[in-house]
Amino acid sequence: MDLLDNLSLGISVAVLPANLLYCFLGVLLGTVVGVLPGIGPLATCAMLLPLTFGLQPTPALIMLAGIYYGSQYGGSTTAILINLPGESSSAVTALDGYQMARRGRAGPALAAAALGSFFAGTVATVLIAVVAGPLTAVALSFGPAEYFSLMVLGLVSSVALASGSILKATAMIVLGLLLGLTGTDMFSGTPRFTFGIVGMLDGIDFVAIAAGLYGIGEILRNLEGGDRQPMSVTAVSHLWPSRNDLKRIIAPVLRGTAIGSLLGVLPGGGALLASFVAYNVEKNVSPNAAEFGKGAIEGVAAPESANNAGAQTSFIPMLALGIPSNVIMALMIGAMIMQGIVPGPDVVTRNPELFWGLIASMWIGNAFLVILNLPLVGVWVSLLRIPYRFLFPAIVVFSCIGVYSVENSSFAVLLLLAAGLLGYLLIKLDCEPAPFVLGFILGPMLEEHLRRALTLSRGDPTVFVTRPISLALLCVAAAALVLVTRPAVARRRQEVFVEDEA
Amino acid sequence: MSANTKDLACGAVFTGVGVLYGGMAWTSLPIGRALAMGPGYFPALMALILTGLGLAILVRAFLTSQENPFGAVPWRAVAFIAVAVLFFYFCLEQIGMFPTVFITTLLACAANDRFRIVESAIAGLVVATFCTLVFGYLLRLPVPLFASPFGG
């Protein structure tokens, strides 16, 4: 059977000592940085990206993926122990996780998160292996019209899934699309929107944008509150959940995994939406619904399983289609291009060892996470005691070095500052940066496929609705747009995201 | 007259960028036709949409009675972080990694209202040593670790 052959190829690549080492290093560093309050996975990946530059493509991507789910997991530890989620997808974990910690049940909360995540990671890995192959085959038959429509669907759903005003989120996407076009037009060689700056001829460096928006912008927002004293960190005693706890988390973990796997594939979805939806579903179906918000272990297990499953399945569109479904995957695509690999359906045939090795390494990485997190939780607790006044200057420095090292160019450092100030302005104006980043990365691809499609059809714009797959994708996009603007859905949408601020 | 301040500013920013980019695309780039799109076609279209969305946000800002103020802006933090990053930009290749990182860390520490020089200097030393070891020796970033700005 093909699948088994592929998986065994993947495992044979992933267990090479060097790859195991980089997987472990990635998970370890990701967890260390992710645990630090106020640093989300994207900022972590952008800062640690230079560590992977010297490596071969396969270990580089294995390590970067490890950094990603390591930081995601580290964020959950922070959310549970000090109620300060480092990233929005852990925000719901903080609701019940912190309540459990306050009642001296931090250990079982952490264990539930770890076990749930591991189970979800295992299922998601198998799912990627099963789905990515056939999807790649379908994707090979895609022409420019299909790609264009697929990206439109991605952008529309990222609007639908963003919190806050739909109008603003749409404007943010278009702003991202415009700024993403900066640089030399690939069809005619004409420089566009470079303002005469040589450093912008190759476009605006994506790592600088990511590190600026999510690193520097976030620091400025955090400094609004002045110097916060480190919060009291709960001590962690008796780690292992009781038999009763284990029984209570089985169903939530299963539901969370299913929800997360499904939502992770959606463009614009990923870990964040998965954890919100899983928590809300659990609150409605759980027999212990009354306990939610007061320290229900189900309220930790379900969103943690969901966000890990979502984080992993969001690799599916990235690997099979070469299209990022969220900002982290956009960074992954950037890293692949830097390694000289063109993301898209060809990767599986041209670089099978990378494709399947990366997938297999995710499962191994998840096992490392459990090993790292449960026994070493004391180490993470002590990291949480580092005051923010020492952390943010270090983040500034690491971001500077990180963006500098992408192309050894000082100009990227200026872009970092500009993106940071822009990011803070956007935060101040209640605009979420995620749609902007997605638009930014998709801008040039969207234009390229639009132009190709119209050239192939001899200028006939109906090409997008006469090809069946393209039409179907556009219909789904239109339906999503109509749906989110319906008053009933809009109200529900607000309710879901209100808990973000709770 | 009360208007939603945040939406007002937001709409103004989007409209401004839309008009600026649209103008640049229209005046300096060949637009072309749908069959043979010039480099200005797609940007002009996007700029038009952005301007439209910006205007819609502006109109909505006047229609709502909610005030929605900005809140405090930590100007000191904005200034010092900017200076720190600019210092890094100007000095990394001139004076080398260790001194640049040390001073950048100090400047960034000063973004905090309660800046204490001694502990910030210690933090700077720690970060600079770490960066020199990891990025300089381990990853061999092609940047001098120490350098004299006068070419000595």
Question: How does this structure look, described?
Answer:
The complex is a heterodimer of chains A (502) and B (152). Chain A contains 23 helices and two strands. With 502 residues, chain A is mainly alpha-helical. Chain A has one domain. In chain A, strands 1-2 form a two-stranded antiparallel sheet. In chain A, helix 4 packs antiparallel against helix 6. The radius of gyration of chain A is 22 Å and the shape is globular. Chain B is an all-alpha fold and 152 residues long. Chain B has two domains: 59 residues; 64 residues, no CATH class. In chain B, helix 1 runs antiparallel to helix 2, helix 3 runs antiparallel to helix 4 and helix 4 runs antiparallel to helix 5. Helix content of chain B is 68%, strand content 0%. At the A-B interface, helix 8, helix 9, helix 18, helix 19 and helix 20 of A face helix 1, helix 2, helix 3, helix 4 and helix 5 of B.
Blueprint (SSEs and pairs):
The complex is a heterodimer of chains A (502) and B (152).
Chain A lengths: L1 H13 L2 H19 L5 H8 L8 H26 L8 H12 L3 H35 L3 H18 L4 H15 L2 E2 L6 E2 L13 H18 L19 H23 L5 H15 L12 H16 L1 H7 L5 H12 L8 H4 L1 H22 L3 H7 L4 H20 L3 H18 L4 H24 L6 H4 L1 H18 L1 H12 L4
Antiparallel strand pairs in A: 1-2
Chain B lengths: L4 H24 L12 H23 L11 H21 L1 H13 L7 H22 L14
